[in-house]
Amino acid sequence: MSETTLPETAAVSIRQLSKSFDGVEVLRDVNLEVAKGEVVTILGSSGSGKSTLLRCINWLEQPDRGSIHIAGQRIGVDDAGRPMPVKTLARVRARTGMVFQSFNLWPHLNVLHNVTEAPIHVLGKSKREAEEHARALLEKVGMSHKADAYPNTLSGGQKQRVAIARALAMQPEVMLFDEPTSALDPELVGEVLAVIKDLSAEGYTMVIVTHEMAFARAVSDQVVFLEKGLIIERADPETFFTNASTERVRKFLERES
């Protein structure tokens, strides 16, 4: 079988992934499997490589070594290590939906158009089909009443909920969340986490970088702890939070509690 496809049904498969910046290795031989419908949270101190790992999954950062498969399809390079054609990369990348810390909404478009832009221009959906789907997604995240509003009129929590709807509009096979609440005022964090919890209950596959410990414990199927680019702990949430096997993780949890 070609290396570009895998027989297993993993939503995300990462093998021996490494990445350096200016000679500093921020990811070292990372191996991770995310099953379809699974929620994996990635924890770790600042600078541990969490966001870099997430950005490598959809090739926003190009790894130095290793391979990444999304729903069985290798992303970024072919079997010989040659870069994928741009259109092929875009097609594989579209299997992931990315939600950033800073929302990244288009300020010149209203909420509805922020959600419909990519489905129309990337997926080739008709305006009517895209708008119907967008309105349903805005209803899902509690933002249907703001369809005609512009981003500069929204709170941070509202912007992030629109960003989630925009990512979902591309019908991704896996959702990637990079510290989705870190830019929010404390009173707005809950509304975004509630939306993500609802998505987990609906069976969405998600990889979430977060610093919200209670949320990670409640929503995760698997918790991964990164330290200096290495996965040093991986467990179900009950084991991770009550019986961590490494002293480093126990100290981290004590500090965060």
**Largest beta sheet: strand ordering:** 6-7-8-3-9-10
Biggest sheet descriptor: 6 strands, mixed
Cα separation of the termini: 47 Å
Find the CATH topology of the domain at 1-39 and 49-95 and 213-257: Rossmann fold
- CATH architecture classification name of the domain at 1-39 and 49-95 and 213-257: 3-Layer(aba) Sandwich
Helix count, DSSP H or I runs of 4 or more residues: 9
User: Structural class of the secondary elements?
Assistant: alpha/beta
SSE ordering: EEEHEEHEHHHEHEHEEHH
Could you characterize the architecture of this molecule?
- By secondary structure, the protein is α/β, with parallel strands linked by helices.
- The protein has a domain of 131 residues: P-loop containing nucleotide triphosphate hydrolases (Rossmann fold).
- It contains nine helices and ten strands.
- The strands form two sheets. A six-stranded mixed sheet has the order 6-7-8-3-9-10, sandwiched between helices. It has a four-stranded antiparallel sheet with strand order 2-1-4-5, with helices on one face.
- The protein is globular, with a radius of gyration of 18 Å.
- The N terminus is likely disordered.
